Amino acid sequence: MTNAIDRRQFLKLAGLGGVVFASGLPGVTLAAGQDDFYFVQLSDTHWGFEGPPNPDAKVTLKKAVAAVNGLDRQPDFIVFTGDLTHTTDNPVERRKRLSEFKQIVSELKVKTVRFMPGEHDASLDNGKAFQEFFGATHYTFDHKGVHFIVLDNVSDPRASIGDDQLAWLASDLKQQKTDAPIVVFTHRPLFDLYPQWDWATRDGAKAVELLMPYTNVTVFYGHIHQEHHHMTGHIAHHAAKGLMFPLPEAGKAPTRAPLPWNPAEPYKGLGFRGVDTDARTAECKLIEFPVVKA
Amino acid sequence: MTSNRKAFLTVMMSAVLALSGFAVYVAAQSAEPKEKVIRISAKKFNYTPGEVQLKKGVPVILEFKTMDVVMGFNLPDFNVRADMVPGKTTRLRLVPDKTGTFVFLCDVFCGTGHEEMNGKLVVSD
To answer: Nearest C-alpha of chain B: how many angstroms from A84?
Structure first.
């Protein structure tokens, strides 16, 4: 049975105004209005990782794919915001992991899937292997009137977007009206979330500056393996949970080492996100899903 | 050789050295304050030393070398960073203006152990 609720009811349930952070509404779906669409964000799947932080590493991605396929409301599209694979110094192994990842996510029922690299995929070869499997590392697309921009802040191992890509961004934005709904996908935070743990983009402020004149902008990213919500002026930035191991809150642990696996609560801290998007304003309502239902 | 000829040769040699940059180099060296130099080397995936002790208000020169690949040195709490390039020595001057323990880290993705590559700066009164 589907517990469909309309958009107005959802807003009333989740809280009116601003950005809604509704967590875990299993079995609840949103009835799509004319101005709405729905996409799913998955992040930091780190395929190839092995270690105590996730003894279930070989099946976690497959379970996430099954969870997405099991959603009552299937998304218009799915986006992976980087670190598809866990890094390796071996270029052959890197391609093997990318290939295996691609094969596993091909099982997603929704076939419109967007990819971007994380530093684990791209920083050791400037994105070369990633591009062989998934194409461009920065690009734009449009969906139901919303302009989506994918920014690459990882192919440069110095965590920079770079002047060329920033010029490309500026050129793209010039074609948009200042009230155009715009959603940005990237891997690292564009703001200095916690540079002590490398949770930043060296020239991210330049991208934010370019976006600032636009009144309806939302940024989705990964990298930090946990939910995080931040505003730079009127621009909302939302980090997604990871799908291999959670990381501690910024500065709340001596290092950014993965949080230990808890056998009593397997998969705790892992998950993915549904995003209900208003096509007129790019206002986004977030719904967080676990990998496995408790 | 007369004393006039010796003086002439001395002047000429000085001019040649100045033109070759030697004199400029010496001047630059002698103009540098005599500050303590802290040498930090990087190798996948560690800094040596991993902990640096400094005194608040006492300037030092941090001198970096990498033994294998391009690395970074980032000390966000003091807003200083440097690239570490194989075959090159990089220096930066630091005057610690606060006490405490601060993280420095590699901010150039350098391999499988990159995320564990960090160290501590301890500044005391």
So the answer is: 15
